[in-house]
Design a protein that fits this description.
The protein contains nine helices and two strands, in the order ααααααββααα. The protein has about 230 residues and is mostly helical. A hairpin with a 2-residue loop joins strand 1 and strand 2.
Length: about 230
């Protein structure tokens, strides 16, 4: 497996957007969204969710067009689902798992390859611990409350997990950059961020692959925007 490269969510916010603004929804109170996995089925302490932590991380950094999506199949590898990811994983054995080993390589075979930014030490550790836990297809979620709407604590981590892998300085899918607050704020102000994550008509849905953001995560971003979208 060479250059398990990574990008994803092509055409996320910038392709064929028919609307120039969107109407924000009312502030969503705590308890009004019961479908979020963090509210209904939270993960037991220490358990990692494949569906809401590992899958979006791998998809947003690895399963893009021209890379490891179902069409491109770079080096014969597809990393867009649990079944396909498990072809590169040995449960309980990170050192024997190609997926994990290529996150650690220091040459051109590292995943993602230069000039794309590598996964952080925390993200690599997350993958390692998920494999050590048996690489299960867990669908639980982490705790989430809609009123927790801080940029640093809630909004940015969500966008980093699901979106920034293909919207940064070295990977401008759809000519969109979400690398930091100042860049994200542009798409807040023109309505494209909220229109895309809520899948409003006329906007390119974000993310286009993997899982849609949960109701609670969308509520957090909506509430943050409605409160003035501060860099808090």
């Amino acid at each position: 497996m060479k250059q398990i490269t990574c990008l994803i969510m092509s055409s996320i916010l910038g392709l064929s957007l028919l609307l120039t603004a969107c109407v924000t929804e009312p502030l969503l109170p705590a308890g009004s969204l019961t479908s979020d996995p963090g509210l209904e089925t939270p993960c037991p302490d220490g358990i990692i969710s494949f569906k809401y932590e590992i899958l979006p991380l791998i998809v947003s950094n690895c399963a893009s067009e021209g890379c490891h999506d179902a069409v491109s199949r770079e080096e014969g590898v597809v990393l867009d689902s649990y079944t396909n990811i498990m072809k590169e994983v040995k449960p309980g054995k990170p050192s024997g798992s190609k997926l994990y080993k290529y996150l650690l390589k220091g040459d051109d075979d590292v995943m993602p390859p230069p000039p794309l930014p590598p996964l952080s030490a925390e993200q690599i550790e997350l993958v390692k611990n998920w494999i050590l836990q048996g690489a299960q297809q867990t669908t639980c979620g982490d705790a989430c409350t809609p009123e927790a709407a801080s940029f640093a604590a809630n909004v940015y981590p969500t966008l980093q997990q699901f979106c920034i892998g293909c919207h940064n300085d070295n990977n401008l899918q759809g000519n969109v950059n979400l690398k930091d607050y100042s860049h994200i704020k542009q798409y807040v102000d023109n309505g494209k961020l909220l229109g895309s994550i809520t899948h409003q008509a006329g906007f390119s849905p974000m993310p286009p692959a993997g899982n849609k953001l949960s109701d609670c995560r969308i509520a957090q971003i909506t509430n943050w925007i409605n409160a003035g979208a501060q860099n808090d």
